[in-house]
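A quick aside before the break. I want you to see a complete sequence-to-structure record at least once, exactly as it would be stored in a machine-readable document. Don't worry about memorizing anything.
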Amino acid sequence: MLKLFNTLTRKKETFKPIKKGEVGMYSCGPTVYNYAHIGNLRNYVFNDILKRVLLYNKFKVLQVMNITDVDDKTIKKSKEESKSLKEITRKYEDGFLRDLKELNILMPEIKPRATEHIKEMVELTKKLLEKGYAYKADDGIYFSVSKFKNYGALAKLEKRKIGKSRIKNDEYDKENIQDFALWKFWTEDDGEVFWETEIGKGRPGWHIECSAMSMRYLGETFDSENKFSDSIIAKNKKQAIIDIHTGAVDLIFPHHTNEIAQSEAATGKKFVNYWVHGGFLTMKEGKMAKSLGNVLYLENLKEKGYSALDYRYLLLTSHYRSPLLFSFENLESSKNSLDRLKNIIQELKDDGKTNVSYLDEFEKAINDDLNMPKALQVLWKLVRDEKARGKLETIKKMDSVLGLKLLEKEKIEIPIEIKKLADERERARKNKNFKLADELRAKIKKKGWQVDDSEEGYRLKKINKT
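That is the input. The structure line, written in tokens, reads:
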């Protein structure tokens, strides 16, 4: 029985989908004005683990992850580089999707771009105007937070005073409880980025984008043609629209708080049943952020000899809600652990069985709010248990959640120097010059390789650091 920590209630709850056997999952995607740093990518690995656990529990999952390709940041980047908005955003979107592939993240079934869903955003804004939750100002259309009774419940802001001022920026600090922009009227700063619509010439605010796209694809069915309309609003008001909404913890306020307000104000229904948020990846100096200039990208890790899966393993060693301190020492330890694990697994023989006892223990861990550190412990206990049966099949099932490609044999390039030394040693053995053979074995080992002999010849294996 799967349990998830729901940010809305601040409790661990048993997961029950709106529709039996099916899950509608919305994941806040990237704002494609730059490449995703490894702190951003932690969030997408967490999303992937959640999806894999749902699939493991036999749910049919429809995951929608938006691509924010129009907002304050993307427009600013476009102007800085003197390139079109589309040219800039597609470049970074492609980079993001490459990172997901390298991290072995299951691709969302639907990846809607904000620029391709302006119609839905306009419809939603019109609905909020009609119902009196939104109003026109000189620079745009705003949502009136004072009109929404439960504003701030997700972020526990109920007792904080709500002001009457407006804020046009997409992002703002946690103290700014103000009316936020749904639609921004065009200004010269926007350049060629605008849409001519019934509600005015301009562009959407960041918050309205996710509400419109999530309801467009997850409304109340798994029909990708479903649109935001009165037919959705008119249905059972006790039933939520979306099963699970995910994102990093910094999105709780204002982004997710505003999503709830505008969505529930428009539909009169609960927006999401389970809000699940991932913790930060931190550096010694604090949170990793582009604004602080302390970011690392997946490419930086690869340049130092680490794979994307080495980084994925590191992320699995910490609970998704806990802050994780990144260091290259921790990454090196994870690389060595993953290498050792794969080496052990490659030596296992398939007996066609499944170890029910270990699998049950693994399932309890993953279903306890995605306790991946515990799940890894169970895996290691299994591979080290000399009496355990059914190891390979059980590891295969575990890896469907871990996503570490544990049963894939890696192609390791053997340096020419090592190959020459091994050939020389093989000739020494055949000539019964065992002293020279032992000396060459020691020399090979010193260079980080192990040579094993068999009737068919020798085999070289990279030695993992401990």
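Two observations worth writing down. Residues 220-236 have pLDDT under 50 and may be disordered. The CA atoms of residues 78 and 84 lie 6 Å apart. We'll return to this after the break.
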